[in-house]
Amino acid sequence: MANKQSRFLIDTYFAAFNAGDTKKMESLVADDLIHDVNQGERRVGKDKFWSFNVHMTRCYKERLSDIVLFVSEDGTRAAAEFIVHGSYIGTDSGLPPANGQTYKLPAGSFFEIRNGQIARITTYYNLQDWIDQVTEGAGEKVPEEA
Fold it and tell me: Domain SnoaL-like spans what residues (predicted)?
């Protein structure tokens, strides 16, 4: 049963992500959430997850497709592979200027689940691939849907 509950939890998290419902996402994580951001520092606590979501909403509009989810039998761990379809809408510090460039790249996330909540999220993608895509599109405004 724990496997099914954890699968539902992660499916709900991804559905909230795709809906842009950061409040719902935040309701699914533990107060002491560990959030390992690709190419970034570890953030601990729901408040830092909230800050991260505010930042991401300012700079990016993303949706995920082709999500393949794996959940351990005991429901304490999960992993997902997916495709990120995004628009770079606000310049992020230390990255190329944003002007609505679109991108599409494979990514993955790992989850730890504790007491019916997400206790850790670790996400990976190829940052250089992303930089190459938004740099190639830097001279023109690309339609939002990829």
Answer: 11-121
